[in-house]
Design goal:
six-stranded parallel β-sheet; three-stranded antiparallel β-sheet; 10 helices; binds adenosine-5-diphosphoribose
Length: 233
Amino acid sequence: MEREIHNIVILTGAGISAESGVATFRGPDGLWEGHRVEDVATPEAFERDPVLVQKFYDERRAKLKTVHPNPAHQALAKLDAAWGGDLLLVTQNVDDLHDRAGSKRLLHMHGELNSAWCLNCDARSGVSHPLSHHPACPHCKQPALRPDIVWFGEMPYQMERIELALAQCDLFVSIGTSGAVYPAAGFVQSARHYGAQTLEMNLDPSEGSLYFHESRMGKAGELVPVWVEEMLK
Ligand code: APR
């Protein structure tokens, strides 16, 4: 017998923001088609060529002003507001579309474009000027800000909280992620290990597709609102 669903963990990736006009990473028009990961998304790249790296993220941050949450982000915010049990939305996305849609129980495991991290005093702050212009940290006044983005080779944020939520969830849902990047790609196996049901919604089967009890293939903007209505029935 399927266990009743009280606690939900939802993982989202670049695919949920694709219909809003934010580029995904892999695939023909993906961000990694135009750039080598090692040139822009590693601590070594930042040490070697900070201006190139800052400009890459400045451009992506500027692009956020031109895009809007789509029905998938909105449906997840509606679920968050209405769901009585535990719910944790873990996003790999560094855009702010879940925040703008109104999701509250939200965690950005790969950081956020709108946040800067000071390498001098360790404080986090909002970004008001392009970081390639070397603005001063509002806390220590040193021009030592880097994008608050988790790069390859760095530890994603709040892993303990995520692992706990995975161990306690009855349903794990993955939306719009290729399943190519760990540790997020392994969440489905963790959740299953603890007995959760697992559902994937993606344009095409992800790399970990075989680990899901159910896979729904299609656009997030169409699939997610339907699923949320099912959950709230
Ligand atoms: N609806 C649903 N899924 C979609 C849509 C859509 N409209 N458009 C694309 N997709 C799917 C693609 O088929 C692909 O499987 O979304 C997935 C996006 O995969 P990636 O580009 O690999 O993005 P993601 O899984 O989020 O990448 C993980 O890799 O480089 C890093 O740190 C970066 O957080 C990112 C991580």
